[in-house]
Write a structure and sequence with these properties.
six-stranded parallel sheet; alpha/beta; DNA polymerase, domain 1; Rossmann fold; elongated; 2 domains
Length: 227
């Protein structure tokens, strides 16, 4: 990694603990709206549905509006809990507002960024929505570490499309061979980066099987071994 000058991170599920913060946001929103469902039961259905909708969104098969509505609608349908469309839209908006207010980071995030910042330029590439992601970065206190933030809304495409990586490097003034992407998605983060000539490290939180030739870590502290 001696030639690396610029390190690009994904945000959700890599630095910012999405599932933990999302659960806290729903706990508040469901309680405030008197939705009488147990949070663990709600999340059991919501989490995989949300992942599925994000995969469809990444492939441009659904819109942002469909993602935000569908993941809740389908969750309540699976729970057999009757909720009007009006309530679903209200819950969706309140959840988006609540989400950046909970800001648990993965263990070792601050230590890693503090360790890297003196010697590398740090950046974010995210498929998340700009206003929400900006809130996460600022409220969690890690926004100060990053020189640029590139999101799919401003780039016009989503990871793993080559253009979002190219725009991020252009903004950073970085060359592909001197850049590395670190993220939790093999397709969107790792393969997307490798295809434009960047280096990549897979944040393998759940210790899934990793294809040959892919560098992976299971804890953020392990990244110090590479830089």
């Amino acid at each position: 990694m001696q030639q690396i000058t610029d390190i690009f991170f994904d945000l959700d599920h890599t630095l910012w603990d999405f599932e933990r913060n999302s659960a806290l946001a729903f706990e508040s929103v469901l309680h405030r709206n008197n939705i009488d469902v147990a949070l663990p039961e709600f999340l059991k259905h919501y989490v995989p549905l949300n992942k599925w909708y994000w995969e469809q969104y990444r492939k441009d098969l659904v819109s942002q509006a469909t993602l935000r509505y569908g993941r809740l609608k389908d969750t309540f349908d699976r729970l057999g809990y009757a909720v009007s469309d009006e309530v679903i839209h209200r819950l969706s908006e309140e959840y988006i507002q609540e989400l950046p207010l909970n800001n648990h980071l993965y263990e070792g995030t601050i230590e890693l960024l503090t360790y890297l910042q003196p010697n590398y330029r740090l950046h974010i590439i995210t498929n998340g929505f700009q206003s929400v992601q900006d809130g996460k970065l600022n409220n969690s206190g890690i926004g100060k570490f990053f020189q640029t933030v590139t999101n799919s809304e401003t780039a016009g495409v989503k990871k793993p499309h080559p253009l979002i990586f190219e725009k991020a490097m252009e903004r950073a003034g970085a060359l592909p061979e001197q850049s590395i992407m670190i993220g939790d998605c093999l397709e969107a983060d790792v393969q997307g980066a490798l295809e434009v000539g960047m280096n990549a490290i897979f944040f393998n939180e759940f210790e899934v099987e990793v294809p040959n030739g892919i560098t992976a870590v299971t804890h953020l502290s392990q990244l110090k071994n590479y830089f």
